[in-house]
Amino acid sequence: MSAGIERPDRLTKNSIELIVGHTPLIRLRRITRELPSGIEVFAKAEHLNPGGSVKDRPALAMILAGESDGTLRSGMTILDATSGNTGIAYAMIGAARGYPITLCLPRNAGPQRKRILRSFGVKLIETDPLQSTDGAQGIAREMFEKEPDKHFYADQYNNEANWRAHYETTAPEIWEQTEGCITHFIAGLGTSGTFVGVARRLKAFNPEICAISVQPDSPLHGLEGLKHMATAMVPGIYDPTVADENVEVSTEEAQQMMRRLAEEEGLFVGTSSGANVFAALRLARALARNAVIVTILCDRGERYFDLF
Q1: Neighbouring-strand partners of residue 80
Q2: What percent of the chain has pLDDT over 90?
Q3: Which tens digit of pLDDT belongs to each residue from 212-224?
């Protein structure tokens, strides 16, 4: 294209911005074949984002918000605590936009995630595994307080741009894809950004939509990215009033569903996706009327090879 030809706006944007989001909504058919007629379960395929997870949306939103308000400037390092997926999203977007990344994550985070992060050149600070992401948050905060001019502390657990990313993008996509017929939304709580943002917007579209949050059934669980809110450091963006109901899923139930999704639906996703779908099916079996249930496929299965 010659320099004298005016470029369309879409060609002047960063390519990462163009490929995050707009994921398909997939109807689950084989694992739902025993459900009563009229009850449908759909999964929003967030694992198809370029960074491989639902966290691409809030990571991009937080970085863009930082650039917009001046807290993120050229030469600064993006810093945060993560269990892996948001970190991978930071790494991908940071590389595309020219920012180095430093991440604090528990030492027992999945080895696949660490390999992906290191491939992007991320500096990893491994923290006490017994303190989970709560401990990683503490270390990240200390690093920021020592060198505030060096770091942009994204602080995903308390950053309003996290849930707003889903309020502004994920929820409208679900509403449009279901043609406004969604009756139930069900998703897990980690930072809580996905659940809070999507549920708030869907209820703005239709207050009758039922929003159900999913948590691990124990403080000692194997569901990376999810929080047992009763015993964990509660994220600042979490709003317990958004949920009409809260349900719990065990690690074993989530892992079994993760394998079923691969073998029966051809969806190679992780344990939090398994937890979401398990909870969605349990809900579907309990309903006595027509329903359109939507949940989230959070990330790709390659990050959980040791569980297959």
Answers
A1: 103
A2: 81
A3: 999 999 998 889 8
Q: How far apart are CA 164 and CA 201, in angstroms?
A: 9
List 132, 192, 213, 272, catalytic entry: 272
Q: Are domains 9-49+166-307 and 56-153 of this chain identical in fold?
A: yes
Q: How confident is the model at residue 306 (pLDDT cuts 50, 70, 90)?
A: confident
Q: What is the pLDDT of residue 6?
A: 56
Q: Is domain 56-153 given the CATH code 3.40.50.170 in the classification?
A: no
Task: Tell me the whole-structure pTM to 2 decimals.
Answer: 0.91
pLDDT digits (tens, 9 = 90+) for 153-170: 999 999 999 999 999 999
Q: Which pLDDT belongs to residue 12?
A: 47
**Nearest to 223, CA basis, from 153, 277, 161, 154:** 277
CATH number of 9-49+166-307: 3.40.50.1100
- Are residues 206 and 194 in contact, defined by beta-carbon separation less than 8 angstroms? no
C-alpha span between 192 and 239 (Å, rounded)? 8
Q: Based on the number of CB atoms within 10 Å of its own CB, is 112 exposed (0-12), middle (13-18) or buried (19 or more)? A: middle
Domain segments of the chain: what residues?
Answer: 9-49+166-307, 56-153
Active site residue 55: yes
Length of the chain: 308
**Tokens representing 255?**
């892992």
How is residue 235 annotated by DSSP?
P
| E strand or H helix at 125 | strand 123-127
**Exposed/middle/buried for residue 76 (C-beta within 10 Å: 0-12, 13-18, 19+):** middle
Select which of 44, 55, 114, 227 is catalytic.
Answer: 55
